[in-house]
Amino acid sequence: MKRIKQYKKLFNIEGDINLKDLKTSYRKLVKEWHPDKFQDETKKLEAEEKSTEIIDGYHFLVSIAPETKAANLEDYKKTITAFQVADWHHKSMLLEVTFTDGNKYEYFGVSKILFGKFLNAKSMNNFGKRNIFNKFTYRKSMKASVEV
Description:
Layout: H1 2-10, H2 19-32, H3 41-64, H4 66-71, H5 73-82, E1 85-91, E2 94-99, E3 103-108, H6 112-120, H7 124-131, E4 137-143
Antiparallel strand pairs: 1-2, 2-3, 3-4
Helix pairs in contact: 1-3, 2-3, 6-7
C-alpha cells in the first residue's frame, strides 16, 4: 500500500487510476527529469535516479489500473479457479502467490493475521478466493517460463 501511495503521489493521482491521465503525467515528468537536460554531474545523477523511479512507478501503476485489470480479468479468473496455489511469500502487507500455471500475483494490504489464516486453511485456494484473491488490490508480477 505504501508503494501505491508513493507512486500515486509522484504522478499526482487521487482515487482510481486513469491510464490516459497517467500517461500524460508520465510524459510530463519524463521530460522534466530527463538526465540529458542537466549539465552538472550531481544533478544528472539525481535526474537518472528520479527518471528510473518515474519509469518504475508508471509500469507499476499501469499494472494495477482498473483498465488493465479489466482487460486481463478472464485470464485472472481462470488462474484463480482452475489452478492451485503452488508457492507464496508474505512480507510487510504484500502477499505474493504463485499458481501451478506459472502465473504470479501480488496482493497489497494483506495483514499478517490474514496470511496466517491463509496458511492454516484446509484449502488455501478456497480461502484465497473467498478472502484475498477478489478483495485486495492485485497485480500480475510475472509469468513463469515454461520448461520443455
